Amino acid sequence: MKKEKSPRPADAEINRRVKIVQEKLLEGYTRREIMELGSQWDVCERQMETYLARATENIREINKNDIEDTIAMLHLNYLELFRFCKQTGDIEEAHKVLNSIAKLKGAYEIKITKTVINKFDSMGDDDLSEVLEDELGPH
Questions:
Q1: pLDDT (tens digit per residue) in 3-22
Q2: Suppose 107 and one of 36, 89, 100, 102 were both cysteines; which one would form an S-S bond, judging by CB atoms 3.0 to 4.6 Å apart?
Q3: CA–CA distance, 11 with 136 (Å, rounded to integer)
Q4: Cβ atoms of residues 125 and 79 within 8 Å
């Protein structure tokens, strides 16, 4: 005798289950412990794998956004620090800040001279960002 399939849950129920799996992952539950939820929900292992994959992707997306936001904040802070170094005449520290920006953007180091730094004197954030993007690529 063939076992009857359970009716497919509504999208809201699927989303609720994925959220539960996501929370369990974040709480440190093992894969085996999470897979055991399948018996409570009367779903097969393959469906649990789908829930697990969706939950993992959700976590990855959240972390990606957090990283992008953090990089953008650091970039703005570095620009502010660079301007401060320029105002106080600390060219050596300004060079270090530019190298930090380069590393943040994935480049290794900017080779820069005092003359080049002086060109940045009157630039605002947008102009300075544009120059750095020309050198390093978009942030």
A1: 556 567 788 999 999 999 99
A2: 102
A3: 44
A4: yes
**CA angle, corner 28, sides to 22 and 31, nearest 5?**
70
Q: Which two tokens stand for residue 72?
A: 């953008």
d(CA 115, CA 16): 59
Position of tokens 């930090």? Answer: 100
Q: What is the mean pLDDT of residues 87-106?
A: 83
Q: Name the 3-class secondary structure at 120.
A: coil
Q: In one letter, which amino acid is 3?
A: K
Residue with tokens 């005092």: 114
- CA separation for the pair 25, 6 (Å, rounded): 26
Q: From CA 110, how far away is CA 115, in angstroms rounded?
A: 14
In angstroms, the CA 65 to CA 62 distance is 5
Which residue in 91, 83, 80, 95 sits closest to 121, CA to CA? 83
d(CA 32, CA 17): 16
Q: Give the type of residue at 135.
A: E
Tokens of 79: 């620009």
